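Inverse folding, one chain.
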């Protein structure tokens, strides 16, 4: 593949690292005290889920998230941190890309009615797919250095 300035694998690494920085920014701007102590993030999501147009989202939220709001707050917040760190460092990259894609699809499904939010989730999901199928761990990654994947 002919490219300008960097190789194709390096451009994919730039894409992977950029996506990782996006996840880290998502983690950084969260009010963790609010999420963990006051339950603001899960309470907000509960309000969205309660009015969701799809009954599967309402019942799924009630079955999985509502009974354990504190644990789910930790899962969401630290999943974003783990995804960001994994993608920036290129550590367990395919797993991070699939995990990020699934998290974006969950966000996308929950926020299906909010088109402003959908652009971010759609772009992050698209980058995850491109990076996954382009094997973005081949360059500038711990996975590449260790010979994994």
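Residues assigned per position:
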């Amino acid at each position: 593949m002919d490219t300008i300035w960097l190789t194709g694998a390096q451009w994919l690494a730039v894409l992977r690292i950029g996506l990782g920085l996006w996840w880290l920014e998502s983690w950084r701007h969260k009010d963790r005290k609010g999420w963990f102590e006051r339950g603001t993030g899960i309470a907000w999501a509960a309000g969205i889920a309660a009015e969701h147009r799809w009954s599967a989202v309402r019942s799924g939220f009630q079955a999985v998230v509502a009974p354990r709001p504190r644990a789910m707050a930790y899962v969401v917040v630290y999943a974003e941190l783990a995804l960001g760190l994994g993608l920036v460092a290129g550590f367990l990259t395919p797993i991070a890309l699939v995990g990020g894609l699934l998290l974006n699809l969950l966000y996308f499904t929950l926020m299906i009615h909010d088109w402003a939010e959908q652009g971010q989730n759609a772009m992050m999901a698209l980058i995850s797919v491109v990076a996954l199928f382009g094997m973005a761990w081949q360059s500038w990654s711990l996975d590449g250095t260790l010979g994994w994947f």
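The CA atoms of residues 93 and 128 lie 10 Å apart. The chain has a mean pLDDT of 94.
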